[in-house]
Amino acid sequence: MPDVIFEEIACKTALNRVNVHNLPFRWTLNPYRGCQHACTYCFARATHAYLGYDTGRDFETRIIVKVNAADALRQDLSRPGWRGEMIAVGTACDPYQQAELKYSLTHRILRVLGDFANPVSITTKSPHVVRDADLLEALTRVADVHVNFSIATLDETVWKRTEPATAKPQKRLEAMRLLSEGGIRCGVLLAPVLPGLTDDPNGLRAVVAAAREHGASYVHDNVLYLKPGTKEWFMPALREAYPHLLERYAQYYRGAYAPRSYTQEVHRTIDALRREYGLMPSGRVAATVGQLQLAM
């Protein structure tokens, strides 16, 4: 990997209000912008264009670090109008990417959330989350806590080509088991489902079965979508690794989303697997993980 540049900034507020009416949470928190995980399909790549950076290599190597995020969050939660609402952490860039080992921003954020007994939903691909197991266990005793592990496939060849700087899926499963055994509610986001690569029924079954075996309480899924900023990076990577799929993707992704018929078929397959393995999400958990539509 190329050298990484960390750009340290101060933020006025840690929380971002989500102005989408059908979402089950109104607040998100991302301590980092850009992501060292370098997933070829990451939907958040487009956000780097807002900073004047490219959505390819810059997204992976120019990481924006909100160094005062924990202090800003404490101010946010201390405001008289705050009502202890769910905060979704890591909806764009992974809060436990490699930068966390240097800055510990997510660790400090969890300490603040613990002080306020505030509900949180965390989404990650990283086993580094287990470093905060004690904080998560303490918080789960006083607030609603969910840790969502993004696992698209157990096929290590596909994993390495599409998520080149992430931990192996098995490591994520082991981390989930550890947290689950500590009483923390965990689930798997089987996302993104990649047409022709991770949509084989046997491969999907393997992920769902492993989720159940490692303590998941639910599984949710989402099919790949390719918006501007991501598509320009993903398609050349696909051409290099899987040229035989180029024509199919060109047909599927004339716009941002795969055909509805294909998406519905994937959902039906995974829904049947969820029912078989007893991993149906319910209530707010279902809504929260469903709307994350994580493609990190």
Could you walk me through the main structural features you see in this protein, from its secondary elements to its overall organization?
The protein is an alpha/beta fold and about 300 residues long. The protein has one domain: TIM Barrel. It is built from twelve helices and ten strands. The protein has helices spanning about 55-60, 70-80, 100-105, 105-115, 135-140, 155-160, 170-180, 200-215, 230-240, 245-250, 260-275, 285-290, and strands at about 5-10, 15, 25-30, 30-35, 60-65, 85-90, 120-125, 145-150, 185-195, 220-225. A seven-stranded mixed sheet has the order 2-3-6-7-8-9-10, with helices on both faces. Helix 5 (about 135-140) links the parallel strand 7 (about 120-125) and strand 8. The longest helix has 18 residues, at about 260-275. It is globular. The chain starts with a strand and ends with a helix. The model is unreliable at about 285-295 (pLDDT under 50).
Question: How would you concisely characterize the structure shown here?
Answer:
With 296 residues, this protein is α/β, with parallel strands linked by helices. Helix content is 40%, strand content 15%. It is globular.
